């Protein structure tokens, strides 16, 4: 079955630049050139929130892994952390000396990596909004930076036509991939962490193995590719292009599966939900669209299960493509769980309690960071007062 359009969100007043789903799929965040961040509800009849705070275009948005914070980067050179609730409170930190193009949380939610037109990639501690270090070997704007799933590597894509792989601990550039014939707009890690995919203005998507540093796949399109996202199973990749289309690539077969026409004008961003049953796209037509995945639907729940339990690739390995990303190819039937309802209810209430605790923690974190900011301000004021006192004494 083909992917189908599920929802259509209208509310932005300029091109949409970025989209991301929360963990529970209940919310979708989008950023726009209209300087606003919107949080859309996936539940029917729930209103959307418009968050105002950035002084210029919002270039990127992302939910924290728990879903209780949203990070955004802007042309106003700042990064903001928002609590996605009615109040839409945020803390702001001066992040770069130029437009911030990309924000990304590590999978444990502790670190944030940002990329900017100031040619640097920066890493931050989320909870204290504390700057940790810069990676600065790119010689042009950096459009995108992502942590690997295990948080040990960082990959960055730049207008210097390179994709760079960094070791987070040593802060060294391990490898530069220079095969792109144009600017590199977007890059991301395969869910297994063994491959990366990058999209460029040379109309291509390239997939590399980061262990051997070699090119595995090359997809030639006929328009600039602005954004891409891996399906959580690792078997598919969705792209957004300037010819207004979204394309779904089958990575195991190494071919194009679907071309979707929804946007009027360039499709600027695209992202799968964390479970892969939906994907969202944004365009310069100011629209945000949510699509139901439909393809492979029976299969990827099992793929995710089997991947988590660490099964090896079975005998039906496709020789066609060199993708040994720990992808499980065999179609397995869902096992009859045979568990009673009481057990399931218990698990649900436990999950809800945990979610509630996480929410409380995030609110605390945010409060602490606001307090810390106030403290800093107070300290600065105190310092000023003391310096003024000194001056008065000296003058006397």
From TrEMBL:
Give the species: Aptenodytes forsteri (Emperor penguin)
Coiled-coil annotation reads 354-388
What's the protein called, per UniProt?
A: POC1 centriolar protein homolog A
- Where the WD repeats fall, as residue ranges, is 9-50, 51-82, 93-134, 135-176, 177-218, 225-259, 260-292
Highest classification ranks of the organism: Eukaryota, Metazoa, Chordata, Craniata, Vertebrata
PANTHER family, per database record: POC1 CENTRIOLAR PROTEIN HOMOLOG A, WD REPEAT-CONTAINING PROTEIN 55
Q: What keywords are assigned to this protein?
A: Coiled coil, Repeat, WD repeat
Q: What does this protein do?
A: May play an important role in centriole assembly and/or stability and ciliogenesis.
Which GO biological-process labels does this protein carry? cilium assembly; microtubule-based process; multicellular organismal-level homeostasis
Instruction: Say which family it is in.
Output: Belongs to the WD repeat POC1 family.
Record's InterPro entries?
WD40/YVTN_repeat-like_dom_sf, WD40_PAC1, WD40_repeat_CS, WD40_repeat_dom_sf, WD40_rpt, WDR55/POC1
GO cellular component terms listed in the entry, alphabetical order = centriole; ciliary basal body
């Amino acid at each position: 079955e083909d992917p189908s359009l599920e929802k259509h969100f209208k509310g932005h007043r300029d091109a949409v630049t970025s989209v991301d789903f929360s963990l529970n799929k209940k919310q979708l965040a989008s950023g726009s050139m209209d300087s606003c961040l919107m949080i859309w509800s996936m539940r029917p009849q729930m209103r959307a929130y418009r968050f105002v705070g950035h002084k210029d275009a919002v270039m990127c948005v992302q939910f924290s892994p728990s879903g209780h914070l949203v990070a955004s980067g802007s042309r106003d050179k700042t990064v903001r952390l928002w609590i996605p609730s009615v109040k839409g409170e945020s803390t702001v930190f001066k992040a770069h000396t130029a437009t911030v193009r990309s924000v990304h949380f590590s999978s444990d939610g502790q670190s944030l990596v940002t990329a900017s037109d100031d040619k640097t990639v920066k890493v931050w501690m989320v909870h204290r909004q504390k700057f940790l270090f810069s990676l600065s070997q790119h010689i042009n704007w950096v459009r995108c930076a992502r942590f690997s799933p295990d948080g040990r590597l960082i990959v960055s894509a730049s207008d210097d036509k390179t994709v760079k792989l960094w070791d987070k601990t040593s802060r060294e550039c391990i490898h530069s991939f220079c095969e792109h014939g144009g600017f590199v707009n977007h890059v991301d890690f395969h869910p297994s962490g063994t491959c990366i995919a990058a999209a460029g203005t040379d109309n291509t998507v390239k997939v590399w193995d980061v262990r051997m540093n070699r090119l595995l796949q090359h997809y030639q399109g006929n328009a600039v590719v602005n954004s891409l996202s891996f399906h959580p199973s690792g078997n598919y990749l969705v792209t957004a292009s300037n010819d207004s289309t979204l394309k779904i690539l089958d990575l195991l077969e190494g071919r194009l599966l679907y071309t979707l026409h929804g946007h009027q004008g360039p499709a600027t961003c695209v992202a799968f939900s964390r479970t892969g049953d939906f994907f969202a796209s944004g365009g310069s037509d100011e629209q945000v669209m949510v699509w139901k995945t439909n393809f492979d639907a029976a299969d990827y729940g099992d793929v995710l299960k089997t991947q988590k339990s660490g099964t090896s690739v079975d005998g039906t390995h496709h020789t066609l493509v060199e993708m040994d990303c720990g992808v499980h190819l065999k179609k397995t039937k869902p096992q009859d769980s045979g568990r009673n309802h009481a057990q399931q209810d218990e698990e649900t209430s436990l999950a809800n309690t945990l979610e509630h605790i996480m929410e409380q923690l995030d609110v605390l974190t945010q409060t602490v960071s606001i307090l810390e900011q106030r403290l800093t301000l107070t300290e600065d004021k105190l310092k000023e007062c003391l310096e003024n006192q000194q001056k008065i004494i000296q003058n006397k």
